[in-house]
Each structure stands twice: as C-alpha cells, then as structure tokens.
User: Fold this.
Amino acid sequence: MLQKKRFRLRYGGILISDSTENKILVVAEESDCRFFLSNLLHGVGLETVAASNMTEGLKIAAEKKPILIILDVMMSNKKGIKMYHHLKHDARLRNIPVIVLSAIDRETFYLYNKFESAQREKSVPAPEAYLEKPVEAEELIRQVTTLISTRVG
Assistant:
C-alpha cells in the first residue's frame, strides 16, 4: 500500500508526495521517447525509471512497484500490447495505473485489445488513460497528475 507522503509537484501547485520511492516507470523502445517523457516528468518534480523493452519493463515493475506506468505500446512484435496484457493479468501489478501511448487511434486500440482478449480467452480492462502520439506535454502531465493524485490521496 502506498504511504501518504508529500512533495511539491511544480505543475499546477498540486501536492502529491515527498517520496522518491514513488517512481513512474516509462517503457518505450525508442530512446527519444524515453528521454522526452523522463525529462518532461523530471521537469515537474517527478522521479522516473525507464525501460526499453517488455522484459526489462516487467522486471522493473515487479521490483520497484511504480506508482504509475507510462507504456508506449508501439513496440516491435506486439511487445507493448503483450506487456499491457501481462500487467493487467499479474495480481502483483494489475492495480498499477497505466497510461498507454500509441500512434494508432483510441478506437482501433480498443478494438484490437478486445480481439486479443478474445483470442487469449482473458479479458483485459481498458487502460486508465490513453494518449495518441505525438503526445501533448500538457495533456500527459494532466493525466499523470490525476492518476497519481487518486492513488496517493
């Protein structure tokens, strides 16, 4: 369970947590994407840890128990979508909110997710937030702030 600690999030003056233990996991194959997301979040006072692939991302998620995961599902060999499914089926990880980033529109992603769920005979819930690339910095920060506030508060 998350401890109620506080730090000053410099975006919008919202107080969330004092702890650097509550990190955000950023998972993206593209180094430019990881760099952009990590720097954007650091710029508003949030700590991140990054992973470049599904295996590394799942390992870090299990070990660090991040407060939030930002997942670029556009990884090779459907690894991003596979990672999302794994996160939502793992009892230890399923309650971590996930912001999905994708170059495909939301409706297409949801239809594909529904198809994959039927193929695996396991339903997967919709992500807590879905943002289309290119990501608008303000919208990402708003989604992150909202999801962290509900987790910590």
